[in-house]
Amino acid sequence: MQLGADHVQVRVPATSANLGPGFDALGLALALHDDLDVRALASDEVVVEVEGEGAGEVPDDETHLVVRALHAALDLAGAPRTGLHLRCVNRIPHGRGLGSSAAAVVAGVAAARALVADPSVLDDDAVLGLASAIEGHPDNAAPAVLGGATVAWGAGGRGARAARLDVHPDLRATVLVPSSRLATSRARGVLPERVPHADAAFNAGRAALLVEALTRRPDLLLDATDDRLHQAYRADVMPSSFELVQALRSHGLAATVSGAGPTVLVLSAAADLDRVERAADELVGGSADWVVRRPDVDTRGVVARRH
Ligand SMILES: Nc1ncnc2c1ncn2[C@@H]1O[C@H](COP(=O)(O)OP(=O)(O)OP(=O)(O)O)[C@@H](O)[C@H]1O
Ligand SMILES: N[C@@H](CCO)C(=O)O
């Protein structure tokens, strides 16, 4: 397989995983994007320039996450690894539970798909499978690939799979992003090996209800986002986020920890945005530790174009 282009541009969305009860399964794409400009070089040199989130922190060589994913995808497609000039404009904050690492991996794989002569060898299933294998979290990778809301699952030897849901046009997302970071590995390390059967049954019912709430009945979001499998267990490693979720829920708002935290996500109907804004203002307004943003739902997923 040869390359069919030497210059591509990629736009990839942030994602919020779990959405309460859908631990490791449900995710939502948010219109907060990283933009990448990727050039294949004739030499084997790798140059990485980063502006915005992660600048001065992430590697600037072939160990950069986007480059690693891009090279792995070229390998999978049977195309030669090339040198690269990668320029990233990053807007997704790192280590906050907004899927920055999944976005980086999905962007790298999508860039490879746009670079190779026959993109059909890297269809959405292959992109999702490879991205999940590299990053480990199909619940972030799936909405980053497909847009909208997704249900992801591991299909044994067939790798990660995902189904896309068309979210209700009235669904709105508000994120409360703290200045502090939390590594996903740390947030996973505090989860118990076993949970009570009643809690597993509770979450199964709420996750099923959440599909209905996301797609047809936003009025059900408060009940549908309740969870007993992960958030309370993680309270000690993100106490402020856990308290904020509880406070927002006591205002009748469908708040959850976003992914592995510590960002807090509030889902609502458009008509309830004023209520969300007032509650956010009351709880974190004026605090230098929290930024409140209201990204649209991203319905496209990653987009990669030949230049
Ligand atoms: N755009 C990027 N370019 C290079 N490396 C990145 C990029 N985004 C994330 N990373 C790497 O991934 C790390 C963050 O991954 P982590 O899984 O802890 O958090 P997250 O992906 O932001 O949140 P979550 O997975 O909970 O949604 C960063 O510290 C950095 O090493
Ligand atoms: N479902 C994963 C998401 C990580 O981004 C977790 O909560 O650990």
TrEMBL record:
Domain GHMP kinase C-terminal: 219-283
Catalytic reaction annotation: L-homoserine + ATP = O-phospho-L-homoserine + ADP + H(+)
UniProt domain GHMP kinase N-terminal: residue ranges: 65-148
Protein encoded by which gene: thrB
Family matches, as NCBIfam families: thrB (TIGR00191)
Domain of life from the UniProt record: Bacteria
Keywords, comma-separated and alphabetical: Amino-acid biosynthesis, ATP-binding, Cytoplasm, Kinase, Nucleotide-binding, Threonine biosynthesis, Transferase
Similarity section: Belongs to the GHMP kinase family. Homoserine kinase subfamily.
Source organism phylogeny: Bacteria, Bacillati, Actinomycetota, Actinomycetes, Micrococcales
Gene3D superfamilies: 3.30.230.10, GHMP kinase, C-terminal domain
Pathway assigned in UniProt: Amino-acid biosynthesis; L-threonine biosynthesis; L-threonine from L-aspartate: step 4/5
Organism per entry: Cellulosimicrobium composti
Keyword ATP-binding: yes
RNA-binding keyword on record: no
PANTHER family, sorted: HOMOSERINE KINASE, HOMOSERINE/4-DIPHOSPHOCYTIDYL-2-C-METHYL-D-ERYTHRITOL KINASE
Binding site for ATP: P93, H94, G95, R96, G97, L98, G99, S100, S101, A102, A103
Annotated EC: 2.7.1.39
Protein name: Homoserine kinase
Function text: Catalyzes the ATP-dependent phosphorylation of L-homoserine to L-homoserine phosphate.
GO molecular function, one term: homoserine kinase activity
Compartment(s): Cytoplasm
Group of enzyme by EC: transferase
Principal location: cytoplasm
Family matches, as Pfam families: GHMP_kinases_C, GHMP_kinases_N
